[in-house]
Amino acid sequence: MGLIKYFWDTYAVVEFISGNPKFARFSQEPVVITIFNLAEIFWVGLREYEEKEAEEIYESYKQCVVDVDDEVIKEAIKFRKKVYKKKKISYADAIGYVYALKHGMKFLTGDKEFKNLDNVEFVGK
């Protein structure tokens, strides 16, 4: 995955789907997410759109899901435990962030909890 620059946080995918112009510059970048992000994306889809559209979004992003190994999961949970008192980071976000670190990608997000962390491409409002 050397050519892939970004791991897309759920926040980034949702903003992109919603048409946020600040995420338009990433439109040619491949989307990489985990199954945990896909679940969050589906949740937001069900909350914001009709079920049929949420299903379409799910199907279109399902192909972007990468496998996450045990090492990434364990490191992510340790990372979450370490920063959780200062930052409210979800399991999905922690796993995605550690996956990005391990695979040489920037963590693409607009989530304020990641604003000043290393290896983050932060897109503010």
In short:
The chain has 125 residues and is mainly alpha-helical.
Write a structural description:
- The protein has five helices and three strands; from the N terminus they run βαααααββ.
- α2 runs antiparallel to α3 (51-62) and α4 (70-83) packs across α5.
- The chain is globular and about 40 Å long.
- 48% of the residues lie in helices and 8% in strands.
- It has helices at residues 10-17, 35-48, 51-62, 70-83, 91-102, and strands spanning 6-8, 106-109, 120-122.
- It is mainly alpha-helical and 125 residues long.
- It has a three-stranded parallel sheet with strand order 1-2-3.
| Number of H/I helices | 5
What percentage of the residues does DSSP assign to strands (E)?
5-15%
Looking across the biggest beta sheet, what order are the strands in? 1-2-3
Helix and strand succession? EHHHHHEE
Distance between the termini: 29 Å
Shape: globular
Classify the helix fraction into a percent range.
40-55%
Largest sheet: 3 strands, parallel
Structural class: mainly alpha
Task: Report mean pLDDT, rounded to a whole number.
Answer: 94
Radius of gyration: 14 Å
Total beta-strand segments: 3
Multimerization state: single chain
| Low-confidence runs of at least 5 consecutive residues | none
